[in-house]
């Protein structure tokens, strides 16, 4: 059993990774002891979700997704404790506030390096927005960690709300602006049609991720995915639960691909200039690229990722021991 690709993902054509950018990013991960097979495979993600990436942004996007994988594998592990998860998250937020890490944990210095590069490359408005998204991402990590407890209250609506409020997907989709350097001003970013496109993109990414995660999670007894919870609450088998969420993914994907027409109508109503319309269309493409590209990438790579190996505490090793 494995997820089927939506028609849109079947037609998706990724960009090409630059070998030099990948080498630079790989060397960077090695400084923090993060150059494990899962991280290195996840670095290949960026040309799939950002096929229009400009050459000079390839290395930072590869680093962003490397950090995601390294940090998430630490935080998501059932062997990590909630207190440590919260402590690390608080220190990540202080990095966003301009402080240096108070600990020498490698994962903290990895993000410190990544955020300094953001500050050097990003215009102020984008930096402020992505900083807010990163802040929400870190602030909700302990809540996701707590979901591993069997007594944690769970339903699909609350789960999707938590995953969206988490901020991680907001960061990821908005990275399309960093990738193609088509930065979206606030009055366009908040267009109702684009807000809806982003929400549907988040749903598609969440469901794609969780359909693959459900297959891995079952091996380690992790129920933090909607398939496991649907089985638990609706008293159905895995195949029926899997098919239910596969159907939701196809529905959300179709709805997403009908929304560019709504973007066009809203641009007319707002009387946007030709330049503003071009930016709004780029923002819409960022959503489509992320949904379809992630699904297509996952089909090729998720089955090979496997479950994280080794001690999740590797992310907490002192920096001097990591490299």
Automatic annotation (TrEMBL):
Region described as Disordered: 300-323
Origin superkingdom: Bacteria
One Pfam assignment: Terpene_syn_C_2
Official protein name in the record: Terpene synthase
Source organism per UniProt: Streptomyces mimosae
Classification of source organism: Bacteria, Bacillati, Actinomycetota, Actinomycetes, Kitasatosporales
